[in-house]
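Hi, here's the filled form for the chain we discussed.

Project: internal
Contact: R.S.
Residues: 228
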Amino acid sequence: MTYRDSNSDQAESIRTGSSTATARIQIVVADDHPIVREGVVASLKGQRHLKVIGEANDGVEVLEFIKQNQPDIALLDLRMPRMSGLEVLLALNESKLQTKAIVMTAFENEEDIQRSMKAGARAYLLKDCPQQILVDAVRRVYNGEVYLPPQVAQKLVDRMQKPQLSPRELEVLKAVAAGKSNKEIGAQLFISEGTVKTHVESLLDKLGATTRTSAVKAAVRRGLVQMT
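And the returned structure, exactly as it came back:
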């Protein structure tokens, strides 16, 4: 865990006699890739009213840092060891901490966006976004707004308009993605082979697919399943 000193900002506030005159938005950045994390920190450096006070390598570290230091903004990657960004979002909601979270990730599929926003993210950014988008998002979220770049907002709208898979259909889909036959899926889920076939037909229709392979590809694009 990397900590950054903010004492100079506090001292300046004392000298001016006004905390609002020099107050900075305090930020923690969490990403398990040091190069990416350092790039994000560099993008925020030198920005007026922004101050990176900590960096974390994974979800456990950043959650502990947030609990101890209560930064204004947490920039979270979604895919992190030990605890994912989504799990951090859920933990923040449960703890009622005031830190506002921004997801910054390489993944722009519909399900990741929808799950993140539902879990409490106040913005969803892609790692290749321009510096000004990042800075603008931080300031907007700090001021109580929700921020989605146009392409991300469109994906969220698209997701909401598509037929949604039931929990059982999602279970069947994941088993299909694992290469299991209808018979194997039935045994795994304790349902008949005929019921599995019905679920497969339904999920094919909802995904706009004609084969099991094309259904899996569509599901991966949407973020419904992850291929390792």
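Let me know if anything looks off before we file it.
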